[in-house]
Write a structure and sequence with these properties.
Layout: E1 2-7, E2 10-17, E3 24-29, H1 40-45, E4 50-55, H2 77-90, E5 95-101, H3 103-118, E6 127-134, H4 143-159, H5 161-172, H6 175-180, H7 183-193, H8 197-208, E7 224-229, H9 237-246, E8 250-255, H10 262-265, H11 267-280
Parallel strand pairs: 3-4, 3-5, 5-6, 6-7, 7-8
Antiparallel strand pairs: 1-2, 2-4
Helix pairs in contact: 2-3, 4-5, 4-8, 5-7
């Protein structure tokens, strides 16, 4: 069930699956243009001694959207990270494992930058005890990538969310998945259609202006799991192996016949890799 907190006058919503006992926190950050509901297969499968928190990023799900002229500038991927820090402070989370898929990975990198500037602590932000980077990349957008995002903003303004979903779907879900499991692309389409145009546009502007995070990788000291679909066209496995080579304590799980939305396309493989990783994290995280 969704809950929400009002922070800085803005409603931030999240799904929380309570843990058995005190619980160790696992924070899951959704992809673009989805919401926390995309993590349903993980909410059901992760061992019940983990407290799972899956926020709706600003404007998605039941979280309040940005207001004003979105194209005027001033939007930053760091906005999502600051919202996350404020939410976790409200929930009393001092340390967690963070997992992000695609856009969620960009938010995880933004959180790393924020924690590096301010340091972990109750006022500044939660400690990062582990990191899961799924179907994402540290590099900033290329000039071509930025142009593609601007074209998507134009498509959104002209034809709405359905057109964006129609354009994205073939790149998000592998052909093998569409053929073998037609329920998956239908669920992906359903989740995308729930996104409101202002949230989509704001996310596109934030993603196109996000900084390069490659320089952060060597400084990641927590255990790190990288997950990627073998057929991911947007962030192919080669990029994941490059990340693994730069992160001191990282492993990579490649899921066969799986595209960009690996947690939905291959939940069995994704959950197995995630559970093995969580089992290897030393206990004792504060709730």
């Amino acid at each position: 069930m969704r809950q929400h907190r009002t922070i800085g006058g803005r409603r931030l919503s999240y799904i929380e699956r309570p843990a058995r006992g005190a619980g160790r926190p696992l924070v899951l950050l959704h992809a673009f243009p989805f919401n926390a509901d995309m993590w349903a297969p993980q909410l059901e499968a992760v061992p019940d001694d983990w407290r799972i928190i899956a926020p709706d990023l600003r404007g998605f799900g039941a979280s309040d959207a940005d207001s004003g002229d979105l194209a005027a500038g001033g939007l930053s991927i760091d906005d999502y990270a600051r919202d996350l820090v404020a939410l976790l402070h409200e929930l009393g989370v001092r340390e967690a494992i963070f997992g992000g898929l695609s856009l969620g990975g960009y938010v995880a990198f933004a959180l790393l930058r924020l924690l590096r500037r301010e340091g972990p602590g109750e006022a500044q932000g939660p400690g990062m005890a582990g990191l899961v980077l799924a179907d994402t990349r540290p590099q900033a957008d290329t000039a071509e990538g930025r142009a593609n995002r601007l074209r998507m903003v134009d498509l959104l303004e002209r034809e709405g969310t359905a057109a964006v979903a129609r354009s994205l779907l073939p790149r998000l879900v592998a052909e093998e998945t569409r053929r073998r499991r037609p329920d998956v692309p239908e669920r992906v389409r359903e989740l995308m259609l729930a996104a409101r145009p202002p949230a989509i546009a704001a996310a596109l502007y934030r993603m196109m202006d996000r900084p390069d995070s490659t320089g952060l990788l060597a400084g990641i000291r927590c255990p790190t799991l990288i997950v990627v679909g073998e057929r991911d066209e947007l962030t192919p496995p080669e990029l994941s192996y490059q990340m693994q080579a730069r992160i001191p304590n990282a492993t990579t799980a490649v899921l066969p016949d799986t595209g960009h939305m690996s947690n939905l396309e291959n939940p069995e493989g994704f959950n197995a890799a995630l559970t093995r990783f969580l089992d290897g994290v030393q206990p004792g995280l504060e709730p």
